[in-house]
Amino acid sequence: MKELLLKRKGRFILYVLACFLPVVDTLLRNFSFALIIGSIEKGQMDYFVKVFALAIFFAVLGILLFILSRFMRISFMRDTILDVRIQAFDKILKHSYKNFSKKSKDVYISNLINDINVFEQHFFHKLLNVIYFGGQYTASLIILLFLDYKFALSLFVVSIVLFFFSKSFEKKTVKLQEEVSENNEKFTTNIANTFNGLEILKLNNIEDKFLGSTLKAVDKVERKKLHYTVFTEGQRNLTNFLGFVIFVGILIYSISSILNGASFAKTALMLQLSNGCVWPIVQLFPFLNELRASNTIYNKITKNDEDTSSSIVKEKNFEFNSEIRVEGLKFNYDGKEIFKGASFNIEKGKKYLLKGESGSGKSTLIKLLSMVVDDYEGSITMDGVNYREIKEESLNNNVSFVYQDVFLFEDTIANNITLFKDIPEEKILKAAEGAGLIEFLNEKKLGLQETLMENGKNLSGGQRQRISIARAIVKNASILFVDEGTSSLNEELGRAVEDTILSLDSTVIAISHRYYKGITEKYDYVLEVKNGLVTQYKSQDYFSMEVLAL
Length: 550
Ligand SMILES: Nc1ncnc2c1ncn2[C@@H]1O[C@H](COP(=O)(O)OP(=O)(O)OP(=O)(O)O)[C@@H](O)[C@H]1O
Fold this sequence. Notes:
The chain folds into 2 domains: 88-302, Up-down Bundle (ABC transporter transmembrane region fold), CATH 1.20.1560; 323-549, P-loop containing nucleotide triphosphate hydrolases (Rossmann fold, 3-Layer(aba) Sandwich), CATH 3.40.50.300. A hairpin with a 2-residue loop joins β9 and β10. The radius of gyration is 35 Å and the shape is elongated. The protein is an alpha/beta fold. The chain has helices at 2-6, 9-42, 45-94, 97-100, 105-147, 149-167, 170-196, 198-203, 207-259, 264-302, 362-369, 392-396, 413-418, 425-434, 438-443, 461-475, 491-502, 539-549; strands spanning 323-333, 336-347, 351-355, 377-382, 385-386, 399-403, 479-483, 507-511, 525-530, 533-538. The strands form 2 sheets. The chain has a 6-stranded mixed beta sheet. The protein has a 4-stranded antiparallel beta sheet with strand order 2-1-4-5, with no helix packed on it. The protein has 18 helices and 10 strands. It binds adenosine-5'-triphosphate. Residues 333, 338, 356, 358-364 line the site of adenosine-5'-triphosphate (ATP). Pfam families: ABC_membrane, ABC_tran. Residues 324-550 form the ABC transporter domain. This is ABC transporter transmembrane region.
């Protein structure tokens, strides 16, 4: 938080000064009041008129100071909030894919929308109040020190007691604010799930069931917000009550001072200044707790929380000229064993088909080989280099993926193939040709420059898959991972796409439940995943075995 505020040091100082201007206004009003009481005590009309004129001047000055304060604060607040938005967005984009995929994307959306809005609405309001009340307290206490130092010191001691009293609420305030944030995340995920599955909900007439669970999530968020508000307001009311008790004490002290001969004007000024000490300090502490809660939210949405505890430094570049060797691979999801010592090799340029029952670990194996998960035991080496030492960015530059669901951008076909990289049109066309997209492009008036609709709504399943294959070709991907790349296509399209994949120079590691006679046999090897182990077969052997088994 400090770095954020001090990023624009000069403007932050200006902001703090701006928060002090209302303190000057309050002090001027205190003096006006004391002077008016003094003039009444004096009983001279001339003096009273002068004092009254001065009080009006101070009142007008106060309004001007308020307007000036607002102008001085506004641009700093706007730019700082913008920084928070950029930092929060940047944090998400900088996540490695592995860490990004640990949470639902809706949680990130909630952080970007709900948490930033909460921060935006609360942070500067609290900061302004903390500076204003802190300033008023300090200024009043210093003046009181000159007027009656014993009295000022006693007030100081009382404020320290109040500080520790208020501090006891800090943890709970921070925790409640975190709970509001967590429930906002759950609510956003719930809403997103409902919308994602709206088609199926409607077709099966089960919207009401989901409406019920959404309403429950809304109820929970609202309850948490209420809990937070009741707690912070309760805290404020309790400290206000203590403030009232202290003020009664001050009032008794003031009356006894007047009875002992102190002037009305001085007593009025001291009373006003004590007021300026007690009430601000009473207000300040709850605000301070809420400011800390805002700080926690700021850290949550902007600070990098990736686990960097691994002692292995990733400094090697991806270089794949010969083979990937997997030895004694063990992996589990929260104790559920998926691999228990699998060993096999992947040769450069060969095509591998992963086979195995549903849930046997085929997709997990692709995740391990593409570094999406790396908390495995055993060893994976690429041309002798430990996989864990290879920079993720370097690997990502050399591999490509074809999934059942292809994400397409609302942009030109060219940008969807190059993924926004600067690649000559000639090369893009060659990739499109390799992926069997030429016929599709010829139908488009603008060819490669034709814009796709949101997530390629205007494309068929086969066309979408071909675009993802064109991505792999244009990237010159050394390894192509395919997870059910043809399962959503009809037989004819599936055959064509599979054939295209198998004709690439890349090493292919694919999962497919489909068997295309005359095409599937083109895989060099089958890796069968069974009982936590991987067995490698030459594809002809594997398929002849399957035929025999039938
Ligand atoms: N992120 C995860 N957290 C916990 N368990 C998981 C996770 N991903 C997969 N699993 C479990 O690990 C096992 C292997 O899953 P995986 O997706 O690798 O299987 P698969 O062979 O690809 O299955 P299918 O052919 O049905 O797609 C399954 O039992 C699955 O439930």
